[in-house]
Design a protein that fits this description.
mainly alpha
Length: 183
């Protein structure tokens, strides 16, 4: 067990500004803490592995470079997700094609067929939602972030985010009701 696993996020960010050895070890610990969830977010938002990988890598590169200059980063997870969000928005703006979700990470091999089919339907239904609803839903339901953390990422008021989450659920219910009747 390395000593960096016991450090807080604030301590790790401080170490990023230190010697090369400390900086690399601190970055490695930050990467191991947040990489899986961040990649899953990128994949759900852009829908293909190539774009998600590009955004994911660029996100950590921007984080590393900006951490040297930032005076204080109090919430690494929110900071990383804010970078990823902005990169996803840029990708959407630049490519005009967005979100064809195929998330094999959501479905395990021991999941039965009906659960797989239901998850496929849910993922397809997310494609129909507008970006702002889809984003809040994914951050809240799939990533488990609090509304306060989502507010830090998006810069939106918590009341707006709660409203969007509710509307996303309502829209998904309306879309899924016909499929759920079959189950």
């Amino acid at each position: 067990m390395n000593k960096y696993t016991q450090y807080s996020d604030y301590q790790l960010v401080s170490l990023l500004k230190g010697s090369k050895n400390e900086s690399e070890k601190a970055f490695t610990e930050i990467y191991s803490r947040y990489s899986h969830r961040l990649y899953a977010y990128c994949l759900r938002m852009v829908g293909n592995t190539e774009d998600a990988s590009d955004i994911f890598q660029e996100c950590f590169l921007k984080f590393f470079n900006s951490s040297k200059n930032e005076a204080y980063i109090d919430n690494i997870r929110a900071y990383l997700f804010r970078i990823a969000r902005n990169l996803c928005i840029n990708k959407k703006r630049n490519h005009k094609q967005f979100l064809v979700l195929n998330d094999d990470n959501l479905i395990s091999s021991d999941t039965d067929y009906a659960d797989k089919e239901l998850m496929d339907i849910l993922i397809s239904s997310l494609e129909i939602l507008d970006f702002e609803y889809r984003e809040v839903f994914i951050l809240r339901q799939f990533q488990g972030l609090s509304y306060r953390e989502i507010a830090e990422i998006t810069g939106e008021p918590i009341s707006t985010l709660k409203n969007r989450a509710w509307r996303a659920k309502e829209k998904l219910k309306a879309i899924l009701i016909h499929y759920l009747e079959d189950f």
